[in-house]
Amino acid sequence: MSLETAPDHIKLAVDLIALLEENEIPNETVIAALEIVLSDYRNKATNSDTPPFSK
Length: 55
Hints:
It comes from Marinomonas ostreistagni. The chain is mainly alpha-helical.
């Protein structure tokens, strides 16, 4: 599968990884930040009528 035909969440993940690596963010900082982001988005998905990954 090419990135061009990949699902949006895969494209976003690849973009985020590239951004973090290009800026040489330490792994510990990335993991801590992503845990916060994941928690926030899970809370939003739980408290919203919009299913995750919808457009």
